[in-house]
Design brief:
The chain is an alpha/beta fold. The chain has twelve helices and 15 strands. The strands form three sheets. Strands 7, 8, 10, 12, 13, 14 and 15 form a seven-stranded mixed beta sheet that branches. α5 links the parallel β5 and β6. The model has no long low-confidence stretch (mean pLDDT 90).
Length: 294
């Protein structure tokens, strides 16, 4: 089966299921594994925001949304040339990837008969279930069961290690200018890692908040996990939040790798967060995953 992934997390799912050879098209943001972007056809492009500040990125996104503009460009001719059987997309967040409706419209215009599977998880359980959903759509349901079982076993090991221990209060900052508190599956990651999530929105969209709202619950630990950034960028942004949380331990996390993408590496994220909250109970996080800044 010929697969096209229109979001980075779906690309990671495809590879985790052992289906990388079936993947023919990806987006410009599909950087895990690195070979995805270099060996597959890029069918979705977008603006390079590396030189922009968080505030400038937020302004750009809001301006595009206000006029009904698109943040991503679907290279329709390239997509049609790949003759895909299944396209993986989403409707969860217009800032994260192309909505499935855009894809359906393009396929209708091109006369392409590919199936479209929209992945829209809101909780950690939803994310785990999406792996089986992809595997079934590709016709290899056993691979989905095997992947989910391996990940659930790792989660169970973390749960056993932190059971009965005090749970630090944890606030997650998903964006710093303006500040956004984390929603969707992120509070579930904190709970699974042995923490008590505060100032979050479990199963709901992340929203803009004030620094006072984030600091009011008195978090013991603040995790800065900006969407679109790996650890280096997260460290820079974490430095800027220190004045707002004078009594908390502030950590930067590889947001794209461990927290914000709804793929298999969320379990890596749980393990890394557990290493922050309970360093004497679980193994250390690998290099490049986390860094304390205050």
């Amino acid at each position: 089966m010929r697969l096209v992934s229109l979001l980075p997390s779906a690309t990671e799912i495809v590879y985790a299921l052992g289906l990388g050879e079936d993947l023919v098209g990806v987006t410009f943001e599909c950087d895990e594994p690195a070979a995805a972007r270099s060996t597959k056809t890029v069918v979705v492009g977008g603006r390079d925001t590396k030189a922009m500040t968080p505030a400038e990125i937020d302004d750009y996104v809001r301006a595009q949304m206000a006029v009904g503009g698109d943040l991503y460009t679907l290279h329709a001719d390239a997509l049609a040339g790949l003759a895909p059987d299944l396209i993986l997309t989403q409707d969860l967040c217009r800032v994260c990837a192309l909505p499935s409706g855009h894809v359906d419209d393009a396929l209708a215009h091109l006369g392409c008969r590919a199936d479209v599977l929209s992945l829209d998880p809101h909780t950690l359980d939803d994310v785990l279930a999406s792996f089986a959903e992809v595997a079934r759509a590709v016709g290899v349901p056993e691979k989905g069961r095997e992947l989910t079982a391996r990940l659930e076993e790792r989660l169970a090991r973390v749960a056993a290690a932190v059971e009965g221990r005090p749970r630090p209060k944890v606030a997650v900052v998903e964006w710093v200018d303006p500040p956004f508190g984390a929603g969707h599956w992120v509070p579930d990651l904190i709970t699974a890692a042995g923490g008590e999530p505060v100032a979050g929105r479990p199963g709901q969209r992340s929203v803009q908040v004030t620094w006072a709202e984030l600091s009011a619950p008195g978090p013991d630990v603040v995790l800065v996990t900006p969407c679109g950034y790996h650890l280096e960028g997260a460290v820079r942004q974490a430095e800027s939040v220190k004045p707002h949380f004078p009594g908390a331990a502030i950590w930067a996390i590889d947001g794209d790798g461990l927290v914000v993408r709804p793929g298999p590496r969320l379990v890596d994220g749980v393990e890394a967060i557990a290493a922050i909250l309970h360093p004497d109970a679980v193994p250390q996080a690998p290099p490049g995953a986390i860094q304390r800044v205050a």
